Amino acid sequence: EREKTLAMVKPDGVLGNYTDEIKRVILESGFNIFKEKISQLDEEQTATFYAEHSSKSFFSSLIKYMTSGPVLVMVLEKENAVADWRALIGPTDARKAKNTHPHSIRAMCGLDSEKNCVHGSDSLQSAQREISFFFNEMSSDEEVTTH
Ligand code: CMP
């Protein structure tokens, strides 16, 4: 069954100029980029997006990181999109990704367990929440429909 998932290139990925390379890998892996836009998150939006991590020790650092520059958010579409995108990006800790998943996107452009370059929804339910977070609620951003 065709699914949609939310993919995001985080500020380190955008500032490090990895966007084109990541989009190339996405298309080569059979995903359709259904929607995409550049967004600059503020602290409140980031706290809402990552609400499930609000009690974690790294939460304030995560907010600082995610608001440090623009992100590229995309709705990816394909069969089994949620799990396949998670597999393509690799483990959360980019240092681990470099060892165990050398062909993953996080191995290519991530730095550590925080600055891991990309995001992917962890379930179909998260995907629906995250897609509407960026593409319904934040409608003041300029939106581009690719396909
Ligand atoms: P992601 O899994 O996409 O969503 C939660 C984010 O929190 C994660 O990517 C990292 O950017 C960050 N994160 C997760 N674990 C840690 C950690 N141990 N230390 C710092 N940041 C983390």
Describe it:
With 147 residues, this protein is an alpha+beta fold. The protein has a single domain, classed as Nucleoside diphosphate kinase-like domain (Alpha-Beta Plaits). It is 44% helix and 20% strand. It has 8 helices and 5 strands. It has helices spanning 11-15, 19-28, 43-49, 59-66, 81-89, 94-100, 105-109, 124-137, and strands at 2-9, 32-39, 71-79, 118-120, 144-145. The protein has a 5-stranded antiparallel β-sheet, sandwiched between helices. 33% of the residues are buried. The mean pLDDT is 95. Bound molecules: adenosine-3',5'-cyclic-monophosphate.
Give a brief rundown of this model.
This protein has 147 residues and is an alpha+beta fold. It has one domain: Nucleoside diphosphate kinase-like domain (Alpha-Beta Plaits, 2-Layer Sandwich).
**Rg measurement, Å:** 14 Å
CATH architecture classification:
2-Layer Sandwich
Quantity of strands, as a count = 5
Low-pLDDT residue intervals, each spanning 5 or more residues: none
The major beta sheet can be summarized as:
5 strands, antiparallel
Write out the CATH superfamily name. Nucleoside diphosphate kinase-like domain
CATH fold title: Alpha-Beta Plaits
Based on helices, strands and strand pairing, what is the structural class? alpha+beta
Number of helices: 8
Shape annotation: globular
First-residue to last-residue Cα separation: 19 Å
